Queue: 2 jobs
Job 1
Amino acid sequence: MSARAETLPFGSAATETPLRRLARDFLDSRVAAGALVLLGLIAIAALFAPLLAPQNPYDLAKVTVLDARLAPGERGSAGFLMWLGADGAGRDMWSAILYGLRISLGVGVASGIVALLLGTALGLAAAYRGGWLDALVMRLVDLQLSFPAILVALILVAILGRGADKVMIALILVQWAYYARTVRASALVERRKEYIEAAQCLALPRARIVFRHLLPNCLAPMIVVGTLQTAHAISLEATLSFLGVGLPQTEPSLGLLIANGFDYMLSGRYWISFYPGIALLATIMSINLVGDRLRDVLNPRLER
Amino acid sequence: MVFVLRRVLQSLLVVLVMSLVVFVGVHLVGDPVHILISDDMTQAEIDRFIEKLGLDRPVHEQYLHFLANAARGDLGNSFVHGEPALKLILERMPATLELALAAFVLAIAVGIPLGMYAGLRPESPASRAIMAGSILGFSLPTFWVGLMLIMVFAVMLGWLPSTGRGEFLTWDGLRHLALPAINLALFKMALVTRLARAGTREAALQDYVRFARAKGLSPARVVRVHVLKNILIPVVTVLGLELGGLIAFSVVTETVFAWPGMGKLLIDSIQRLDRPVVVAYLVITVVMFVVINLVVDLLYAALDPRVRLSEARA
């Protein structure tokens, strides 16, 4: 097939794949393109935090109380410039933010992926099998979605207790319902289409129909929901950690950094809370902007 | 009538299921005894303590006991405060309701005019700014906005107090209320703005609006009477459902501003494993939600017979 494409006279037109068209449409919006770049930088910062940070903020040998509450731009006792200041224990804020981003993004993305898999499996099964399974799954979804996510998360945290794993479980259980609902809705539309009927007439195995034919055609809305839900999960985790019922002090996400700086804020030392907040904000905003643009690009009905 | 009964029964079932989930779940978390006994207590004292709290009985017995008591309005005593959990929560409920209602009013009072303006002049720079602002309102985590409000208005400018609650409906009370209410309202404000904008854009193209204009009515009157009336229905319906969300989110705002409401009590109780208070809070909130959803559903059915009929057939 690729050999044939090369022999076509219209070189540029032949290379237009759906993915490239998608990329071009996406980048038409300068805001979205900027958000994507920012998101990429944030992801790199989170991934390579130990290499980029001048200090391991949780290595007690490297942190000294002498640096406590240094203002932004002052030089710490280790010799490097603390351009975002230091927190109450003398940790370099820039390093703490990089490490915090790593945890916030990690928890958000990991819980999002598990929730995506769980929600997709249940949503597809509900749509394809129908009957009691559909009724059961959708009742559960309805029950859960009639309460705001923060309340469900608080109930779960109250039930499960504290710890990183418990917060992850809570985030997964909060999110799966959104995926299940989305997948089921688009699968119900798709499964009435002729290609599914054709596949059924060919007596293909059920698993093949569901995963090779039905699932790929439900992907577009899932990508959009997945992006926006990840931003939501990061925000929710930060909120729980800020409230003191989320991640433990040993795994300080951005929410916990902000909470730790809260007391200092009233005495005018704004930077301990402010800069982690900016990092959190940049992460959530850029994911939301990318998600919004994806929704516009992937859904031709919304084109104006 | 059958429809109403069905919905009421469904709602009761939801409450029952949620109370079971919460009770059994909370029971399986750590042992509150460990937190409440001091090291110098003798084993006999500890045993008496456990017996007094009913922690020595099997889970299902504790739950049935809990249900029977709950039906009488007794949700157990707080382990920490030693007072009835229900009383503790009801004492703090007025503060939460004051905050939620203030935020509700604020969201409508600000959101509708902004949304209508953006809907009437979709291309103007001000409208674009409003819409960008509403995206911010959706994206910003509530607790961080609260911190920024404290930083700017309480610490840097010193205009408003950052924590606590004043007397209801006094100047001092309003000053204390201002920042938390703005904080809590922001998300809903963004939502109302978007709803009002979408509604206005739709209504502005309708024949009755064009006719009103053609009739020579002043633009102000067209907007105030013909457009506003028609966008209020969806806005009010959605907001009715969101009232519960305000109460849930007040947990965050109350913690930031040390507002002495139910939400702050919940967070303190989760941290201290004060089980009866957590269970009581959740049961009360779930009941509030179910009632709100039920009322909105019934209103829908009253306004739109199609809902009733399709439910009856199902």
Job 2
Amino acid sequence: MRPTNKPHGFDQPRSLGEPRAWVLGLFLGVLALAYPLVMGAVDQPYFITFASRVFVFALAATSLNLILGYGGMVSFGHAAFVGTGAYATAILAQAGWVSAWANWPLALGVCALLASVIGVLSLRTRGLYFIMITLAFAQMLYYLAVSLRVYGGEDGMPVRRTLLPFGLELRDEIVLYYTSLLVLALALLLTWRLVNARFGWILRASSENPTRAASLGLPVFYYQLVAFVLAGTMGGMAGILLANLNGWVSPSFLSWHLSGQLMMMVILGGVARLWGGVLGAVAYLFLETLLSEFTIHWQLFLGGLLLLAVLAVKKGLTGLWGKERG
Amino acid sequence: MRLLEVVGVSKWFGGLSAVNNCSLSVEKGEVHALIGPNGAGKTTLISLISGLLFPEKGKILFQGRDVTHLPDWRRASLGIGRTFQIVNLFPSWTILENLVLAIMARDGHGFRFWKPVVSERHLFQRAEALASFLGLEERLEVPVATLPHGERRTVEIAMALAISPRLLLLDEPLAGLSPQESVRVVQAIRKVAKETTVLLVEHDMEAVFQLAHRVTVMAYGTILLTGSPPEVQASKEVQQVYLGEHEPFA
Amino acid sequence: MGFYLVEQILNGLQLGFLLFLVASGLTLVLGVANVINLAHGAFYMVGAYLAAALVGLTGSFGLAILLAALATSFLGLLAEAFLLRHLYNRDHLDQVLATFALMLVLSELVRMTWGSQPVALSVPAALAQPLRLGEFSYSTYRLALIAFGAGVSLGLFWLIFRTRLGMWLRAAAANWEMARCMGVPAGALYKLTFALGAFLAGLAGSLVGPITAVHLGMGTDVLILCFVIIVIGGVGSIKGAFVAALLVGLVDNLGRAFLPSLFQLVLSGPVAASLASALVSTLVYLFMALVLVFRPEGLFPVRMR
């Protein structure tokens, strides 16, 4: 391959975090917790839903970052898992499985199974071939959803929202907000631990130099497969929340446009950085919303901005973020 | 029982025969050198032994076990380590991190998801010990990509050693090194040879005759002869192959 | 039934040749310059829209498509000069982002110029009457497309396999470093590859206009199909793209035509109909997945790295 500037960062061996990061984290945490109350007070419930949307996309982008960023597996079919999670929760709820205790594990199980199958078949390929085969699988699911009229076909179907414990209803935008925030926080915590544990080191090594990893006796395929399944399941969780957020699920949740958007978010936010998915989702959704307020031709400006971003940064956006700091 | 037995192995690329009916054996504890002019097929043979390539014909036996169809990582976990002609490390990682990963690979238990690696002091201690063994202890926190060539080679040897290999395949470890760097790496190889069996591909004849117990000469994809260094040095056939006058098995 | 089969085979060939025109440009750009160009589909679309506009201006279909293709080729050169040349040594991810952005920009520009509604492009009058052979009748235009497509394909093959330029392209696709060392003029070669690719894409878009109507989504539909083709055929391989394009064209058409009926033989009911419809749409992807399972590098891999 031609030389590329790809110093995917790696954290230095030191203790679990520095005080500055914790203070910042705490500050953001308090902000996030207080946000809906503030928005409720100024009577702007739309912003609460918007924030939930950001969290859900951040979750989806973080799950993609696990395989794309840390694992070096460029998947163009991640929407397959988001969409499957969404459809699974909708179909289960329609069949009467409305309680989160039953609905969510089952839906996530379906996603994990799907990810295993797609992973086993796709991970034999690399590079462009991997990109295309993951796209192909997502497209297959997309067309399946379009043609299944019993589940709404191209228009999709309404989602009966899951019932949370303690009688909490996801229909309530504040409940949804805190739920998405909690799930995102949990996902980030798990990702953080995973990435710094043995599994994460091996995954990153396999991404950096698979030949060397194999020559050390590491069965790269199995590590990548596990990562793929974890990412698919996490993406499925994002799908579940998205379905509850919209109250509707449609084949667009499986489209390659969504896969592309998620990739954009990861690249913008920082490949192989813990907060990459979050930053990317925030940036992309804010830009999209802001620009569409000004002009119906917002795609033109978004495209232009992205172009400038890529051109301006000589080493490439993926190289911009340099070394990660744990 | 011989540590490694290569029996009648052949490998083709398209219509080109890279390795043709080669047989070779390596005894436990020896340093066995593989020499020959460029294009002789030495690296191909090494890749066949390490499992990066698979032969069309022939068998490879490691510790009496047939490993011909095992993938490279499997052979590595059985004890065949290797370095590459072009230095192959994890470039953005530091020396310490590279070594820790190698030790981790040897350790097994890779599917741990919660405990941070940095808290496993024993891994780091072993990595530091390994680095000291090969004289790398000064530069542990330096990203490998910024190191001079000779040091990177040493790191690579250290990594290969980290998995406690029974057989270490070294593919032109001295290529592109300055004289001082060469001396250091030769010293490193000598130290390594006390711990494990080595199959060494090299062009540097001085180093080969310093280090090797036995030498195998390859040319045009076939094995010419195997013998002690003086035997090989004296052989007319070998001399002619290097000088290009005589083409055996044309 | 026999006529129906022949008709579907001919349709498949026609689709195949057109897809080859577009896919060849994509595989060359990827093979020679190692750039993933997501905007390639946009060139296809722009060619179609330009042709539609030019037919009105010039009154001649042939002239319109030629001018449209040339204009698209020029657009390709502009894109190379201002954007793509900065992507040569970049990560594939950066290339995806940049060309995706370019695609957004081009799509929106087209929408701003021509609106969201599809634009009509008529079959030229000379080819409007269907050809009749006894009881069998087939669109003359489509036949002309097959002939034209075959002709252009032949020309492309001659260029790639019989000229020095083609030799350079093939060498660069197989091993870029080696080719560079042997004195292949990289900069000029890249420009040419992009220009040629854009030309073929624009040409294909204009030609297909009368059949599928000129609309905003046409670029992305064809783009995915093209990536599928070059993956099946092997990245950088013209021969592979040709074989894969024809296979895809035939599989898609014959599948759509005959699979639902085949399904009805085995299953019945609305679910079966839905499944058949889903299967038909995904047939091409299934085919690709199947190929990749057995040949992870495509049918005719060219890379020797």
